[in-house]
């Protein structure tokens, strides 16, 4: 099974506004860059992936992607995750490949997580989903083949993606890993990331800023 990763990235200058009680705008941008690099490290080291696409209207995010070895895809404007992902899903479909959509704010993801999800999706039409810790968002969506279900990012996307698979009779598997389920949206998420075992770029940056 051929597979590529897709990482949609918002404009870095406007990212993670809900972290403003604990981080300045500049610090939030630095955290978003660090998280993107952490995610790309895991994706590009994982066996079973042929490459990764980063979709963004942000020139610096695309530059980070290119430096890391991912293929940048420029959005003309920021139009949401569904529209951003669609640009790369089309590329994956043209290649006859599976598509793994990963947000740029799950910096604890490891190559073994990616490899496990790829194995779960092998053997025919399937989707693999990793929910957020709050069980509302979708922190990983692997579609074999790309576009086998429509993406439904936004409120309750995890339930909506499961429903899309069920309505089409497509096998669905849930990958429950704390590393993938922890996304950084709220101050308590950032604090948990800083406390978690490990020494990713994101963790080092947060620990420095928070004095831990």
Kindly name the structural category: alpha/beta
Q: What is the H/E order?
A: EHEHEHEHEEHEHHH
N-to-C terminal Cα separation, in Å?
43 Å
Largest sheet: 7 strands, mixed
Total number of strands? 7
Ranges with pLDDT <50 over ≥5 residues? none
Mean pLDDT: 96
The coarse overall form would be globular
Can you tell me about this structure?
By secondary structure, the chain is an alpha/beta fold. The protein is 42% helix and 17% strand. Strands 3-2-1-4-6-5-7 form a seven-stranded mixed β-sheet, with helices on both faces. 44% of the residues are buried.
Task: List strands and helices in order, with pairings.
Layout: E1 3-8, H1 25-45, E2 51-56, H2 59-68, E3 71-74, H3 81-94, E4 98-101, H4 111-121, E5 126-131, E6 138-144, H5 157-167, E7 171-174, H6 178-181, H7 187-195, H8 201-210
Parallel strand pairs: 1-2, 1-4, 2-3, 5-7
Antiparallel strand pairs: 4-6, 5-6
């Amino acid at each position: 099974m051929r597979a590529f990763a897709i990482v949609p990235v918002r404009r870095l200058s406007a990212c993670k506004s809900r972290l403003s009680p604990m981080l300045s705008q500049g610090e939030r941008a630095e955290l978003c860059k660090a998280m993107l690099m952490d995610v790309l490290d895991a994706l590009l080291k994982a066996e079973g992936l042929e490459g990764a696409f980063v979709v963004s209207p942000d020139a610096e995010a695309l530059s980070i992607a290119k430096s890391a070895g991912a293929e940048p895809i420029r959005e003309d404007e920021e139009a949401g995750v569904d529209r951003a992902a669609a640009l790369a899903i089309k590329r994956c479909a043209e290649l006859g490949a599976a598509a793994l959509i990963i947000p740029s704010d799950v910096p604890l993801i490891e190559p073994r997580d990616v490899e496990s999800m790829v194995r779960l999706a092998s053997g025919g039409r399937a989707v693999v989903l990793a929910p957020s810790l709050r069980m509302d968002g979708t922190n990983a969506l692997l579609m074999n083949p790309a576009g086998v279900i429509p993406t439904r990012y936004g409120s309750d996307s995890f339930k909506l993606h499961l429903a899309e698979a069920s309505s089409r009779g497509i096998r669905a598997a849930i990958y429950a890993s704390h590393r993938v389920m922890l996304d950084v949206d709220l101050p308590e998420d950032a604090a948990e990331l800083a406390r978690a075992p490990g020494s990713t770029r994101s963790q080092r940056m947060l620990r420095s800023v928070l004095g831990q």
